[in-house]
Structures are given as structure tokens and as C-alpha cells.
Design a protein that fits this description.
Rossmann fold; OB fold (Dihydrolipoamide Acetyltransferase, E2P); 2 domains; 5-stranded antiparallel β-sheet; 25% helix; 32% strand; globular; binds adenosine-5'-triphosphate; membrane; transport; ABC-type ferric iron transporter activity; ABC_transporter-like_ATP-bd
């Protein structure tokens, strides 16, 4: 296993790229730590598969370098990078048994037969296919075949990383949950470096130690699920993570006060520096309260979601969401208050530090 790092990595599919929009991946300068479990999360077209294919060697980046453990691997083939990959759809040899499918990548690498047997049996156990070990792969269902693909990714002990590209798409919902927890357990036990592409927030947050949020070809934040929730570094993270997403309101800032039209919100501190351009106040619904005092709002809708209610309200013509207890009566003339611990400020979509 190895640390995977990116040195001014960019990729354009078109020749002679000029503007940022010409790049499917804009500049990436991050590192994925050795033994970390990462999820690449973002909407369709944000560049997740492009980044994964660059890591695996299926695609050579147009600019910058890719390093494994400090070694430049930008121009190495997939084979030479020693990476295991699991794709969206099963890649199995139909005419081989389940056992043979798992043993094959090890035999190819000249692993000792006794060791192969131990590894294959261990992997069969992990993916729950021990009882079907000697069945031909073609006789299995689509999700059993995908389990073989997962097993083939996990059977080799010598890989630099295991890459998963939306591997649970064909798996039924109950099994999805089970396989995801199994992957997590395997990660804890063996410490593989795992990179998992998904556009599903729940899948990313349950699988990964750290989630890499991508938006328009950029990595906008790498963080634990708690960090993404508490300190979104970009408005996209605030909006995309959480249900409902963060409330974002354009504001004018002077000192410690943010003005939303005629209304004032006291910030937890003054901005150290505030770049020119668009400024937004960002507060998650969990830190937004409907109350008797504060800024007047009009309530549009109340949704009961079990443990609490989501109140949708208009503040200066803009819809915001607040959480309310199930039993809490809503005031006749509703106002909104923002809890100081949940107030964030964004300049041109990026978080601004407040206070000393
Ligand atoms: N082979 C290609 N040639 C030209 N443009 C491409 C190619 N592959 C991807 N793109 C473009 O690059 C951008 C990033 O695509 P990519 O497939 O990496 O995104 P993604 O986040 O994986 O999306 P999805 O979740 O839909 O798979 C998109 O604008 C896409 O249209």
C-alpha cells in the first residue's frame, strides 16, 4: 500500500485547453494517505471517474504528476502500478468456478499455491460465497457475480490501492448495506488504501474515513463526515452534504454584522479578510430555529420526517429550511434565529475564517 499524491494534476480531454472550463479536472494538489479509506463524492460530470482512471493508469493526465509513495508513476501502465479495480458491472470469467476466479489473479503473479488456497478461502468467507466456491460463475446471479469482482479486488495482498467505481450499482439495497459494512471491516482489519467513487452521499459517508468532495473538476474539500457537516469549506459542500442542505443567503458584511436586506445577523467574529465579490451567509437547518423573535419569515410548508419537522420558510423572498421538534408549536408571527455555533461566511463560494 502507498500514499497517493497529486502534483499540480490537471486533465483536459480536448487539445489545447485554455480556460478552466476546458479541463475535466482543474488543478489537484492533494494526497491520499497510505491505508486511508476515501470516497470520491460529487454530482455527475464533476470528474470522479476521470480522477480514478488517472490513478489506475487507464488515462494519462494532460498536465502534472501522480506519485505513489513519493515515486512518479504518471507514465506507468496499470499493470506496473499494481492496483486492484472493481468496476460498476461484474468482471468475471463465466466458465471458471468462483474459486478459480479468485485464484486466477494470484496464479498470474506466481503466488505460492498453498498461499493461494489460504487467501482464496479467506476471501470466499469475506464475500459470503464459500458454499458456492465450486460453482461456475455463469450460474450465479448478478449480485453474486459482483461479489466475485469485489473478492478479486480484495484477494491480492500486495496492491498499492484498491479502486472501486460505483461497485454496488447492481447489488440489491439490503445486500448493499451488508457489503459496505464488510468493506469497512476489511479496511479496519487489513488497512488497504481504498478509493471508492460514488454519487450517493449515504454510501460515501458510511464507507469512508474521509470524503473527497468534487465539484466542477475540483476537489473542494477532503474531510471526515463530521468536518463536512460542521465546517463546509465550499458552499457546494454545505448544499450537497446534509438533508436538507445548508441555507445560503447573500449578505453585505460590515465588521461583525451581516446584512440580509434590512435585517442584521451578528457573526461569531469579523472576517480576517474578505475578498471582493459575492458574500453568502451559510447556516445549516440544524442551526436554524423558528422563534418568536429574530428575522421575520413566512412559513410555506412543514414536513414531518419522524424525529423532527422540517419547516420551509421564506426569508426576504428566499427559501430556507429550519428544523423544529415534533411537539414544538410554531409561533403565530414566525421569525428565524441562527445559532452562533452554526454560522458560516462564504466569499465567492469559499469559507472565510471569522474571529481572531
Ligand atoms: N472520454 C471523454 N472524452 C471527452 N470528455 C469526457 C470524456 N470522459 C469524460 N468527459 C467529460 O469530462 C467531465 C468529467 O467526467 P467524469 O466521467 O470524470 O465525471 P463523473 O463525476 O465520473 O461523472 P459520472 O458520475 O456521471 O460518471 C464531464 O464533463 C465529461 O463529459
Amino acid at each position: 500500500m502507498a500514499e497517493i499524491s497529486f502534483d499540480r494534476l490537471r486533465h483536459a480531454y480536448r487539445p489545447n485547453p485554455q480556460k478552466p472550463e476546458d479541463f475535466a479536472l482543474r488543478e489537484i494538489n492533494h494526497a491520499f494517505r497510505d491505508g486511508g479509506a476515501y470516497a470520491l463524492l460529487g454530482p455527475s460530470g464533476c470528474g470522479k471517474t476521470t480522477l480514478l482512471n488517472i490513478i489506475s493508469g487507464l488515462l494519462e493526465p494532460s498536465h502534472g504528476r501522480l506519485m505513489f509513495g513519493g515515486r512518479d508513476v504518471t507514465h506507468l501502465s496499470t499493470q506496473d502500478r499494481n492496483i486492484a479495480q472493481v468496476f460498476q458491472f461484474p468482471v468475471v470469467y463465466d466458465t471458471m468456478s468462483v474459486y478459480e476466479n479468485l485464484a486466477f489473479p494470484l496464479r498470474n503473479r506466481g503466488v505460492d499455491p498453498a498461499e493461494i488456497d489460504v487467501k482464496v478461502r479467506e476471501t470466499l468467507d469475506m464475500i459470503g460465497l464459500s458454499e458456492r466456491a465450486h460453482r461456475k460463475a455463469r450460474r450465479l446471479t448478478a449480485d453474486q457475480k459482483q461479489k466475485i469482482s469485489l473478492g478479486r479486488g480484495l484477494v491480492r495482498a500486495d496492491v498499492n490501492a484498491i479502486l472501486f467505481d460505483e461497485p454496488l450499482t447492481v447489488i440489491d439495497p439490503h445486500m448493499k448495506w451488508e457489503l459496505r459494512s464488510q468493506l469497512k471491516k476489511l479496511h479496519r482489519r487489513f488497512g488497504y488504501t481504498m478509493i471508492y467513487v460514488t454519487h450517493d452521499q449515504t454510501e460515501a459517508l458510511t464507507f469512508a474515513d474521509e470524503v473527497v468532495v468534487m465539484y466542477e473538476g475540483q476537489v473542494v474539500q477532503i474531510g471526515t463526515p463530521a468536518e463536512l457537516f460542521e465546517r463546509p469549506m465550499h458552499t457546494f459542500v454545505g448544499y450537497f452534504i446534509g438533508s436538507p442542505g445548508m441555507n445560503l443567503m447573500p449578505v453585505e458584511v460590515s465588521g461583525e454584522i451581516a446584512h440580509i436586506g434590512p435585517h442584521a445577523v451578528t457573526l461569531p467574529g469579523a472576517a480576517r479578510s474578505l475578498p471582493a465579490g459575492r458574500t453568502d451567509l451559510g447556516v445549516r437547518p440544524e442551526y436554524t430555529r423558528i422563534s418568536e423573535t429574530g428575522i421575520p419569515v413566512q412559513i410555506r410548508k412543514v414536513e414531518d420526517v419522524g424525529r423532527h419537522r422540517i419547516v420551509r420558510a421564506l426569508l426576504e423572498g428566499r427559501e430556507i429550511a429550519a428544523l423544529a421538534d415534533e411537539s414544538e408549536p410554531l409561533p403565530a408571527t414566525p421569525h428565524v434565529q441562527f445559532l452562533p455555533g452554526g454560522i458560516n461566511l462564504y466569499a465567492n463560494s469559499w469559507r472565510v475564517e471569522l474571529g481572531a
